Amino acid sequence: MQLSFPYPETEHKLVAGVDEVGRGPLAGDVVAAAVILDPERPITGLRDSKKLSERQRERLYDSIAERALCYALGRASVEEIDSLNILQASLLAMSRAATALSVQPGFVYVDGLHCPRWAYASTAVVKGDSRVDCIAAASILAKVTRDREMDTLEAQYPGYGFAQHKGYPTAVHLEALGRLGPCAIHRRSYGPVKRAVQVQTRETARDHG
Predict the structure, then answer these.
(1) What is the pTM of this model?
(2) What is the arrangement of strands in the sheet containing 30-36, beginning at the earlier edge strand?
(3) Which of 41, 50, 93, 133 is positioned for an S-S bond with 67, CB 3.0–4.6 A?
């Protein structure tokens, strides 16, 4: 994949791509990645992580980790999501990923509509994970990292199906949420979780009434 709109100001500069994964789920952190690709070591098959199979993502994850000039991850916790809102938490995660790069970029492409408040020269690119190779690489790293974490959390919080739905509001997840109530990694500011908390509170009050 090649940049579809190379900006003149990026010429002769190291360019990073930044993307996040996990805005929609009811549970778990939002995870971001920042990647500076090495033009001397191109990676074929980069595209939006959502359009790749799990096997393709895993293969590309290994290629990016091996061939990128550098990459870094950042995150915002469930507590930060609930206190800041998901947009601000996503921007925070992306900022943390970019500042964690061992080699700092001269320009940053950010997936979406907004750039974090930072000192980098940058531009937001709508559907950037389908248009800009370094953003696509970042989306793959973030997606694989978060999916692996949700697989691990399945064992810690059994019964919710986190390994299956990765925290997204599927029918299976909503049924488990209603049956079990929220666990520690659920986002209390999200509507379905908020309603489950209210039901749980009413039932507790009734049981002790």
Answers:
(1) 0.91
(2) 70-76, 30-36, 15-21, 107-111, 122-125
(3) 41
